[in-house]
């Protein structure tokens, strides 16, 4: 076995003089090699811990030098951490430094997930000459939509990130420098921070993660967000990219946007022709395909498809000019749930997609499983609206889905039965299916609504109901009503006026098997995946619990207001 050398804490200078701590893994033979770079806020010393998507030592043994760096302001690096703002310039400087080293042949590839995806895509917009291939996984296309906000509502997985990761590490850095830390009697754990009102008001967040104030101060996709948006610079990205995500990943929609956006608008023919995407039955943190409420089988894990080897084949093609055929394979590899098997496709959305409306119905009312809400091909006739009371201080709880929350069964394909017993959740189901229905692609909910409040939220959730009644979430979405027409020009509601609104429920790939039911849930909250709408029409991030109000919300489904779920159906 070849000898691997590890150079620890090499301080790489950036253009403004701040030095970034960097570890280098390389073969002892000293021959110049292509370099794979990962830049992380999560402590570079953990890069060798169990990772089912990329194997650093295997990459070195395969003839690569691997460079892993703490980003500015984190762990052993100098400077102040300001998420993503710093990563364009620091990434460009790091790539140039790595390409110029004697152990480098000048060809750079990048890898890593979540924040580490941003440290690839943001500097790629500057066309660093050495960068020739990327493998961004479970990462964002836009730091606003789908990352910090969704449908105008504030997502709270970033607040969980701040509380669980950013603040403790920053406190440790300051303590190591001998600085006096804040002393607070307020509870400071993930659950406490997510429930606190006003949002993110805890002094620890204010002191140790001040950037979160900026995120709350920009509730619309303005210039602040565009400076850190990969999708604002697809035209300048020239490197091929291998995109990886999961059906239950918080960045599922963003991953598809990166794939499609670079394929259509990439800054070179090589980039446009060489975008690949892999989507498994995974969450942001679980690549096994095994969950307490749903087991997808032995073929579902990242190791079953040998994702580390796929990475190496990708880099071999673009950094070693290997003729291994990976660029000739179908560009889309997805795991189809229900039948629990992998499938390739020529593009996304699938070219043979047929979008079909499933209409909402009820007679007595669709409130909870005890109601008579139904989904069918048949358009509605003379039907009364469904009505529910939304109380933001008693929100519908998040149970799994595309989220990151504490708890053993808090993410991914969870049973929604307990949620569906609530009267503020409208439940619409098909009869048990006689034949399988294949749903693969983006999903939209179009509903006619009214509210007694000047602003409120509407949520939608697609569920696969098994014959035993287990109701497994597939995908979901939200719309803050003030942003129904424009994300940049909010408009409050006229109380009790009827509006048509459209909710992006992201996407899925699921075969609803015979005997299963297709189900839609509609409500006005999904907490703590999203913040709660106060129903006041005011600045929600600054409001206390005493300012929150209830709202009476209605969903209309009749001949002139045919609310429906638009599903991507694949005919076989």
3D structure, described in words:
With 572 residues, this protein is an alpha+beta fold. The protein has 3 domains: 4-145 and 225-345, Rossmann fold, CATH 3.40.50.1820; 153-218, no CATH class; 353-570, Jelly Rolls, CATH 2.60.120. Helix content is 18%, strand content 30%. The chain is built from 11 helices and 25 strands. Strand 5, helix 3 (115-124) and strand 6 form a beta-alpha-beta unit. Helix 2 crosses helix 3 (115-124). The longest helix is centred in the first third of the chain and has 20 residues, at 157-176. It is globular and about 80 Å long. It starts with a strand and ends with a strand.
Provide the domain count. Answer: 3
The number of helical runs is: 11
CATH topology of the largest domain: Rossmann fold
Instruction: Report strand %.
Output: 25-35%
Q: Which second-level CATH architecture of the largest domain applies?
A: 3-Layer(aba) Sandwich
Strand order of the largest sheet: 1-2-4-3-5-6-9-10-13-14
Quick structural summary:
The chain is α+β, with helices and mostly antiparallel strands and 572 residues long. The chain contains 11 helices and 25 strands. A hairpin with a 2-residue loop joins strand 11 (290-291) and strand 12 (294-295).
Chain-wise SSE layout:
Blueprint (H helix, E strand, L loop, with lengths): L3 E10 L5 E9 L5 E8 L15 H6 L3 E6 L16 H13 L4 E10 L1 H10 L6 E7 L11 E2 L2 E2 L2 H20 L13 H6 L7 H6 L2 H7 L5 H4 L14 E8 L3 H14 L3 H5 L1 E9 L6 E2 L2 E2 L11 H13 L12 E5 L4 E5 L7 E9 L12 E3 L9 E5 L35 E4 L7 E15 L5 E9 L5 E10 L18 E14 L4 E7 L27 E6 L7 E7 L2
């Amino acid at each position: 076995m070849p000898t691997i050398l590890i150079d620890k804490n090499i301080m790489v200078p950036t253009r403004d003089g701040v030095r970034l701590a960097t570890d280098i893994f390389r073969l002892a033979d000293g021959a110049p090699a292509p370099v794979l770079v990962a830049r992380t806020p999560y402590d570079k010393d953990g890069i060798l811990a169990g990772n089912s998507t990329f194997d650093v030592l295997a990459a070195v043994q395969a003839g690569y030098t691997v460079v892993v760096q703490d980003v500015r302001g984190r762990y052993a690096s100098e400077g102040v951490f300001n998420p993503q703002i710093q990563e364009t310039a620091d990434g460009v400087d790091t790539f140039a430094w790595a390409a110029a080293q004697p152990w480098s042949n000048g060809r750079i590839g990048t890898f890593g997930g979540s924040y580490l995806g941003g440290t690839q895509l943001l500097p790629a917009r500057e066309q660093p000459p050495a960068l020739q291939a990327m493998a961004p996984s479970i990462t964002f296309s836009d730091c606003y939509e789908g990352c910090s906000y969704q449908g105008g509502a504030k997502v709270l997985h970033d607040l969980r990130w701040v509380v669980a990761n950013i603040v403790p590490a920053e406190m440790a850095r300051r303590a190591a420098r001998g600085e006096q830390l804040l002393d607070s009697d307020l509870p400071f754990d993930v659950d406490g921070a997510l429930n606190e009102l006003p949002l993110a008001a805890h002094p620890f967040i204010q002191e140790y993660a001040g950037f979160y104030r900026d995120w709350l101060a920009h509730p619309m996709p303005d210039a602040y967000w565009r400076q850190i948006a990969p999708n604002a610079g697809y035209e300048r990205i020239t490197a091929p990219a291998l995109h990886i995500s999961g059906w239950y990943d918080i960045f599922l929609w963003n991953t598809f946007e990166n794939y499609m956006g670079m394929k259509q608008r990439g800054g070179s023919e090589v980039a446009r022709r060489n975008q690949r995407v892999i989507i498994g039955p995974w969450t942001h943190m679980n690549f096994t395909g095994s969950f307490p409420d749903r087991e997808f089988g032995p073929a579902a894990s990242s190791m079953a498809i040998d994702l580390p080897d796929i990475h190496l084949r990708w880099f071999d093609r673009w950094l070693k000019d290997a003729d291994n055929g990976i660029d000739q394979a179908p560009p889309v590899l997805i795991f189809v749930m229900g039948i629990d098997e992998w499938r390739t496709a020529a593009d996304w959305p699938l070219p043979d997609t047929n979008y079909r409306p499933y209409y909402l119905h009820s007679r007595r009312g669709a409130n909870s499983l005890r109601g008579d809400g139904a989904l069918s091909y048949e358009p509605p006739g003379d039907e009364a609206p469904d009505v529910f009371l939304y109380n933001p201080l008693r929100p519908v709880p998040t149970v799994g889905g595309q989220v990151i929350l504490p708890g053993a069964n808090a993410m991914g394909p969870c049973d929604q039965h307990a949620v569906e017993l609530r009267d503020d959740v409208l439940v619409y189901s098909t009869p048990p299916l006689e034949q399988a229905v294949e749903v693969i692609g983006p999903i939209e909910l179009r509903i006619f609504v009214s509210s007694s409040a000047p602003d409120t939220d509407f949520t939608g959730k697609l569920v696969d109901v098994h014959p035993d009644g287990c109701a497994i979430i597939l995908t979901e979405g939200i719309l803050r009503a003030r942003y129904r027409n424009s994300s940049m020009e909010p408009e409050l509601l006229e109380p009790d006026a009827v509006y048509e609104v459209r909710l992006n429920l992201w996407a899925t790939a699921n075969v609803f098997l015979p005997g299963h039911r297709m189900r839609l849930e509609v409500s006005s909250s999904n907490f703590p995946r999203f913040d709660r709408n106060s129903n006041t029409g005011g600045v929600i991030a600054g409001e206390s619990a005493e300012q929150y109000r209830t709202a009476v919300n209605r969903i209309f489904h009749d001949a002139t207001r045919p609310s429906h779920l638009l599903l991507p159906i694949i005919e076989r």
